[in-house]
Write a structure and sequence with these properties.
It is a single chain. By secondary structure, the protein is mainly alpha-helical. The chain has helices at residues 5-8, 10-25, 30-45, 50-57, 62-69, 84-92, 105-114, 119-127, 133-136. The protein has a single domain (7-70, 80-136), classed as Uncharacterized conserved protein DUF2267 (Globin-like, Orthogonal Bundle). The longest helix is centred in the first third of the chain and has 16 residues, at 10-25. This is DUF2267 domain-containing protein.
Length: 139
């Protein structure tokens, strides 16, 4: 079986995603953007049961999928979905001294992510997740 195209072009797709997220958020560097994206993904992951999180990861591009599951404490207590401002502050707390994510970070990452996923599959999975999940990724 040939290597799937999304895997063959994962690095290129990720660089394009990072550039989109950087431009949408107004950040200056790839490193700043990476931290913002990682923080947003971790905030979302904290609110899902393990099986739902794995299904969500399945609709992400390969490198974002890897970021989503990396350094995961699967025994961590699940947090409830709350207001976007509070969850954005949680994302901004990742590597606080090196985190330049704007208060709009969740919406910024959502806007960039939606350019890089299969829209129908993404919506199908979001609709099957707990209340608050679809709102988290709403643009």
């Amino acid at each position: 079986m040939p290597i799937p195209m999304d895997v063959q072009h994962a690095s290129e797709q990720f660089e394009t995603f990072l550039a989109n997220a950087r431009d949408i958020s107004g950040l200056a560097t790839r490193n700043q953007t990476y931290t913002m994206v990682q923080g947003v993904l971790q905030v979302f992951r904290r609110r899902l049961p393990l099986s739902d999180a794995i299904r969500f990861a399945g609709v992400l591009p390969p490198i974002l999928r890897a970021i989503f599951v990396s350094d995961w404490d699967t025994d961590e207590i699940r947090a409830p979905f709350g207001d976007l401002a509070s969850m954005a502050q949680e994302a901004q707390a990742l590597r606080r001294d090196h985190n330049f994510a704007p208060s709009s970070c969740i919406g910024d990452v959502a806007a960039a992510l939606r350019k890089h996923v299969d829209a129908a599959e993404f919506e199908r999975v979001l609709a099957s997740l707990p209340d608050g999940a679809a709102e988290f990724w709403r643009v």
